[in-house]
Amino acid sequence: MGTLGDQVVGDAYTSTRGFRLIESLVDLEHRLPGSDGEAAAAELVAERFEATGLEDVSLTEFPIPGWERGEVSVSVDGRGGFDGPHEVVGLPGTPAGTVSGELVDMGYAVPEDFEGVDLEGKLVMASSLTPEEYGRWVHRGEKYAYAAESGAVGFLFVNHIDGSLPPTGDVGDRTGPGPIPAVGVSAEAGAKLKRYCETESQEATLSVDCLNPPATSRNVEATVGPDTDEEVLFTAHVDAHDVGDGANDNGVGCALVTEVGRLLKRVEDDLETRVRLVTFGAEETGLYGAYYWTHTHDLDRVKCVLNVDGAGYSRDLSVHTHGFDAIGEAFEEVADDYEVPIDVRSDIRPHSDHWPFVQRGVAGAQGRTLAGDSGRGWGHTHGDTLDKLDVRDLREITVLLTEGVVKLAERDRSIESVDPEEIRETTVEQRFDVGMKATGSWPWGEESRAWPWRDGVRGSPAGD
After folding, report:
1. According to the 3-state scheme, what is the secondary structure of the chain?
2. Whole-angstrom Cα distance, residue 373 to residue 299?
3. What residues contact 113, with CB distance under 8 A and at least 6 apart?
4. Could you tell me the domains of the chain?
5. Under the phi-then-psi rule, with left for phi > 0, alpha for psi from -120 to 50, and beta for the rest, what region is 419?
6. Which tens digits make up the pLDDT trace of 272-328?
7. Which residue stretches of the chain have pLDDT < 70?
8. pTM above 0.90, yes or no
9. pLDDT tens across 5-36, in order?
10. What number of other Cβ atoms are within 10 A of residue 199's Cβ?
11. What's the confidence (pLDDT) of residue 85?
12. Are 84 and 75 in contact (CB under 8 A)?
């Protein structure tokens, strides 16, 4: 057994505190970045930190480009109007507008599919699936960027999983809306639209109503453990897409941060490095909270970051280390201590709140749970609801992550940062550079995008 001890582990395995927090979060109207619900969620996390007795509890606000949902519809030659919320939804960051053009199915919409294809004036359909043999995941934003660059006037992102409803997800630019109207479409509605595409050229109309006002988000943080020069960060994000409850993505993450913090408080005298618990705001629309944190803090004081996102699918923990082997070794020890499997992978995952740290060379990992081959599953849809979760999964993952954080905080466990150039090279090797450059999120060199708060702040993006 690990270092937590039977009493602390027993506490974790009988606790309902984390699940009760998720209930409180999903009972808010929604937690879209910049909304009143996201602000209320941040307050709930802060209250839980304070009730646990953690120190330095704070909420820090920062500006973001907001987005407010309106009605959307798709029609094809006057037939089969698609305007129900379980068939089609607007994607955050889309501009408002009504566009018409030939409906074209681009299938998986990987980069090669757009080579030499004229999409001027057309509406593009793209599957949410990337075939496994392609070797890397092609992000929604990448497919959207290729469509817009090829002259498309509208974008339809089609869920590949039957019954999982229309998928949502951000397509906006860093400072405002993206170039063309975009919606998510259910697999069933997508199949009907695809059938229209296969029979003959079809004229479709896409109408999106939304607002893109400036907004404010916030980070919540607290500390536990000795006053040391270095800190271990354990993080998640508090915001969620508004079409569902955000129970898994990322209510589970908030529950884990607060529960791990509570258990660490019980073993505080045994911690050898201070641990900072953080829930970031506005992850879903551009990792704004994490980027804000990295541009307003001394990253030399961060020993490592463990970020949890998508950890409610099961109790089968997976840790992506981005090549920081010392983090993986710590969790391999946890697996041995508790005699449970933990899937440790070294690959790059550049789409959650650890990435603003990792791209700067800070040792960082993402913790999630495995869900077979279902991809995101119910995530980013109306189906991300409380009933999909199991309190037993939450309890087991809480124990494993707490034990892992304690090991990462060991004074003699060396976890070194690296030159950002190493991360850049690994990102290129794994072919993520193609999509990141297409979406303007490549953080190195002349193609990197500026952040409004970075100027004059220590630790600007790698390559600037």
Report:
1. CCCCCHHHHHHHHHCCHHHHHHHHHHCCCCCCCCCHHHHHHHHHHHHHHHHHCCEEEEEEEEEEECCEEEEEEEEECCEEEECCCCCEEECCCCCCEEEEEEEEECCCCCHHHHCCCCCCCCEEEEECCCCHHHCCCCCHHHHHHHHHHCCCCEEEEECCCCCCCCCCCCCCECCECCCCCEEEECHHHHHHHHHHHHHCCCEEEEEEEEECCEEEEEEEEEEECCCCCCEEEEEEECCCCCCCCCHHHHHHHHHHHHHHHHHHHHCHHHCCCEEEEEEECCCCCCCHHHHHHHHHCCHHHEEEEEEECCCCCCCCEEEECCCCHHHHHHHHHHHHHHCCCCEEECCCCCCCCCHHHHCCCCCEEEEEECECECCCCCCCCCCCCHHHCCHHHHHHHHHHHHHHHHHHCCCCCCCCCCCHHHHHHHHHHCCHHHHHHHCCCCCCHHHCCCCCCCCCCCCCCCCC
2. 36
3. 106, 107, 146
4. 6-66+215-420 (3.40.630.10), 68-211 (3.50.30.30)
5. beta
6. 999 999 999 999 999 999 999 999 999 999 999 999 998 998 999 999 999 999 999
7. 1, 80, 372-376, 446-464
8. yes
9. 999 999 999 999 999 999 999 999 999 999 99
10. 7
11. 73
12. no
| Packed helices 253-266 and 36-52: angle between N→C axes, nearest 10 degrees | 10
Q: Which two tokens stand for residue 271?
A: 């911690």
From CA 426, how far away is CA 430, in angstroms rounded?
6
pLDDT the model gives residue 181:
98
